[in-house]
Amino acid sequence: MRVLVVGDDLTGCNATAIRLRRLGWDVITAVRYDRVPDFRLKPVWIWNSESRLLPPALAADRMRKMLAQLQLQQTESAFLGLQFAKRIDSTFRGPIVAETEMLLRSVPGPVYAVVVAAFPGSGRTVEDGRLLVHGVPVDETELAHDPFTPVITASLQDLITGSGTLPVMRADPAWLCSDGAEQAYPAVRATLGDRGWIICDARSDEDIDHWAAFFAGWPTRVLPVDPGPFTAAWLAAKRRRQGSVLVIGGSAMPTLSRQLDTLEAETGVRLLRLDVCHLRSESLTAMADALVEQARQQRVFGVRTDQPSGPVHTPPGEIAAMLAGLTAKVLRRVPAAHLYVSGGEVANEVLRRLEADTLLPLVEVEPLCVLSEVLAGPWRGLRVVTKGGSVGSERVIVKSVQLLTGAPGREGEPSAKERKDDV
To answer: What is the pLDDT of residues 267-280, one digit of tens each?
Structure first.
């Protein structure tokens, strides 16, 4: 997945870059608006338009020129394949509407700007369509008297319609119910046509996560418009829905060998072989490069260590540490990946290397084989299946991969509400 987030000032751009990096995205900040991001270097760019204080007409023209420059360096399909997002000020200052509508018009419709202006960690929430700062309407704070970009109303709909030309609607919280998605898209098309704005209430990070999961499954393109949390959550949700699976077969048990053979036979994938008799840092670097290349060609990719060329003299702890380092290298470069790990010692070392200190168990695939979600740290939201090397049916890895790549709520997996109630 290639992502371009456009912000209007450097501090905000860097804040979003750090937020995405903590979630495992390989990201660069482009400081100047006249330096076009090069997606051959990194898959995710935060591009500073340096436009916070520009009048709306000039900001829109700058956005138009930036996008034109970007299109010159991309094929048409590559440009249209980008995931765009608009990083905004957490109090809705600046030429947000002009820039966003220029972005909306740069890609074929239907496309909708999804505004989740909340930043609960900084005291910014949206209730009944109004932006609050620590519970106070934004137009009743000092920001109403900002000498350059005063905020004259707390109503996001009024702020957008006051300077925009595209239609606006508020998201209905009922959309988040089990059958709400079926009603949402027809309602949006009827109200907004091919382009427009959708405003979402959010009082907490959990609210943001709910909207992110909902719009990650939206049938057409959406443009996140927010101060950072929603874009990060939406990209994480997209990654969970679209991601590949990195398989780490870190045991030499015959049971695991049969399970890996079954995976390869049923799916047609060919895992790379890593000879643990000859582990060196150079070979791991080459293996990481090979796995990244493999990820470009197949959705399930990975490595197996069950076929050593001779007696293994390397201590198990050292093997586990090297496989953990390999896993971290690959996930940094293939962020849209879930993780399957066989071998208890290897699984523990991998999670330690990823700083995944807490897990939310989601479902037992088979006894001693559990799908979990990382709750905190740089890889928050990562889904991982862990299994001992000598347990499980011959299809346990196949079933694990299917569960990792399947849609949320499939049979046997608890819903988000059930997981919350259990906790």
So the answer is: 889 999 988 887 77
